UniProtKB/TrEMBL annotation:
Protein name, UniProt field: NCBP2 antisense 2 (head to head)
Residue ranges, annotated region (Disordered): 76-99
InterPro entries named among the record's database cross-references: NCBP2-AS2
Organism: Piliocolobus tephrosceles
Gene designation per UniProt: NCBP2AS2
Superkingdom of source: Eukaryota
């Protein structure tokens, strides 16, 4: 409790805050924080621009891609089910299993 009050009193001192802001470690931390925020903002804008370009592409391009994905997925699923043998005996659960 005493430490908390002491720290609060120190941080509310304008002279101390001024001296800390001029120190090399605090300036470097501020630079790194600003750099990280700027990079995140630029990457977000780039991702938004790519999404807009993808959506504004040729009419139906996104629908065709989704359809191709759906077709490929169902084809792979069917191929996997065909290649699989029947379930081993005793593996069924639920009412009426293994009667």
């Amino acid at each position: 409790m005493v430490l908390r009050r002491l720290l609060a009193a120190l941080l509310h001192s304008p002279q101390l805050v001024e001296r800390l802001s001029e120190s090399r470690p605090i300036r470097r931390a501020a630079q790194l924080t600003a750099f990280a925020l700027l990079q995140a903002q630029l990457r977000g804008q780039d991702a938004a621009r790519r999404l807009q370009d993808l959506a504004a592409g040729p009419a139906g391009s996104l629908c065709r891609r989704a359809g191709r994905f759906r077709d490929a997925f169902t084809q792979e699923l069917r191929r996997g089910l065909r290649g699989r043998s029947g379930p081993p005996t005793g593996s069924q659960r639920g009412p009426g299993a293994n009667i």
